[in-house]
Specification:
The chain is 29% helix and 17% strand. It is of the alpha/beta class and 286 residues long. Strands 8-2-1-14-13-12-11-10 form an eight-stranded parallel β-sheet. Strands 7-4-3-9 form a four-stranded mixed β-sheet. It has a two-stranded antiparallel sheet with strand order 5-6. The longest helix has 11 residues. Bound molecules: SN-glycerol-3-phosphate and calcium ion (CA). It comes from Gemmata palustris.
């Protein structure tokens, strides 16, 4: 038929480990990624930033202070940005960043955990789960002469993961809040991998979905947007867009009694295709 084919690389309700098993281990550390695999994650999510010397590292923030001891190790390298003391990732080389402790902020038992490069993340997950890298703040790096999309495609190519189905055990989906980043991947870097556009609150009319379809294969809406906009999942599916929703975490479950119940509602009643969750051990399998 001429019905658009829904892009669904999933064979079952899909568990995406958000920053690894980040409820139980420090986000984006090897410990968090390994725990996600132990919990049976279908995909593991690395957010990507870039070091001063152009290496992709797995960090959510553009700055180092929330998840490392950078303030203690490099007190003199502080920048004051809009009245806030901060240590931007892009001002440190990989070697400098690798001196930092990325585990203690979560719990003393994780002391000594390191910031992970994208390559180390791939080495940990490849053959065991899919990977859904997010190009984070690519415009910040662009202004510094660093090209995040190029670096991402080169890294995937070096690991023979740059085409759909290249490693059936390690499907790759690229996600971004930046439409420009997704478009650059397709147009400038010949990326044929599935692309997912992240949506915050207050977006996603049917017309917007149609425009999204021109450069992406799926949407990843905030869960509040899915609740606030009835018909969003059906409209997306009708256009052939997959729907992967974020972020499910214990303690932020709204009217739901538990994160498990909340994820079950989204997967079974609202028919979303996948959930990003910090609480990977709470994923409802039945
Ligand atoms: O990528 C899905 C979700 O992680 C988006 O929000 O800020 O946690 O990267 P954030
Ligand atoms: Ca993310």
């Amino acid at each position: 038929t001429d019905e658009p084919k829904v892009f669904l690389p999933y064979t079952k309700p899909t568990l995406i480990a958000h920053r690894g098993a980040s409820a139980d281990a420090p986000e984006h550390t090897i410990a968090a990624y390994e725990l996600a695999l132990k919990h049976g994650a279908d995909f593991v999510e690395p957010d990507l930033q870039m070091t001063k010397d152009g290496v992709l590292v797995c960090l959510h923030d553009t700055t180092l202070e929330r998840t490392t001891d950078v303030a203690k190790v490099y007190p003199d390298r502080v920048k004051e940005i809009r009245g806030k003391k901060t240590w931007p990732v892009a001002e440190f080389t990989l070697a400098e960043i690798q001196k930092l402790d990325a585990g203690s902020w979560k719990d003393a038992k994780f002391a000594g955990a390191r910031v992970v490069t994208f390559q180390q993340m791939i080495d940990t997950v490849k053959g065991k789960a899919g990977i859904i890298p997010e190009t984070k703040a690519p415009e910040v790096y662009g202004k510094l002469g660093l090209n995040m999309e190029k670096a991402l495609m080169e890294a995937l190519k070096a690991n023979k993961l740059d085409t759909p189905g290249a490693d059936p055990k390690t499907p790759i989906i690229i996600q971004s809040f930046s439409a420009a980043s997704l478009k650059a991947l397709r147009k400038d870097h010949g990326c044929k991998l599935p692309l997912v556009y992240l949506l915050g609150a207050g977006e996603a009319s049917k017309d917007e979905l149609k425009r999204t379809k021109e450069f992406a294969d799926g949407i990843a809406p905030n869960k509040a947007l899915v609740l606030a906009r009835p018909g969003l999942v059906a409209d997306a599916h009708e256009l052939g867009l997959s729907v992967t929703v974020w972020t499910f975490r214990s303690g932020q479950t709204g009217k739901f009694k538990s994160v498990r119940e909340e994820m079950a509602h989204f997967l079974k009643e609202l028919k979303v295709d996948a959930v990003f969750t910090d609480n990977t051990d709470q994923f409802p399998r039945k």
